[in-house]
Fold this sequence. Notes:
The complex is a heterodimer. Chain A is an all-beta fold.
Amino acid sequence: ILNVEQSPQSLHVQEGDSTNFTCSFPSSNFYALHWYRWETAKSPEALFVMTLNGDEKKKGRISATLNTKEGYSYLYIKGSQPEDSATYLCAFSGTASKLTFGTGTRLQVTL
Amino acid sequence: DTEVTQTPKHLVMGMTNKKSLKCEQHMGHRAMYWYKQKAKKPPELMFVYSYEKLSINESVPSRFSPECPNSSLLNLHLHALQPEDSALYLCASSQDPGNSNQPQHFGDGTRLSIL
């Protein structure tokens, strides 16, 4: 059973704060690491797919880094806005065919 | 708007009923997935279809029966379900089978309740 852990489980920040979350995954047999954003009553939306150690990806105010040797990825949100409120899921792939999801970090941004 | 459409959005059924969940995508994706998500747990993979053929079955009980009639459609047939099968069922697709460095596109899910 693969262990994909995310921390913290939940986070409450004020508008304008910057924040970050962690995804830990097995450091052997790495194929890809995905980040998804899942708003309540909507479908999970892909943010990033990362495949190389040292990868850094950016999409607007959101960015992610990857360390495959030590088995972790960070997701950063700069200047959080209320519309960033969602659950952020990472998913690890140790094979070409399937993803194992973490339990997610639930972010709430208030005014 | 999601590009993967799931119907119905909600389903309540008894343990002796037979029902089906449907999933449709028109992005030309050749890999399609069923996931099950219980409250406060991560989505768990159930089945993977590659080029309309079942390629992965994660030891799912036979009361769940997947079907891929064509490259755009994925069904999940349900029969004699148990109360513990109540969950959100998510469908997803990706462009190429056997290539998990591509993002998956998810539907909104079907919320299933077993009485």
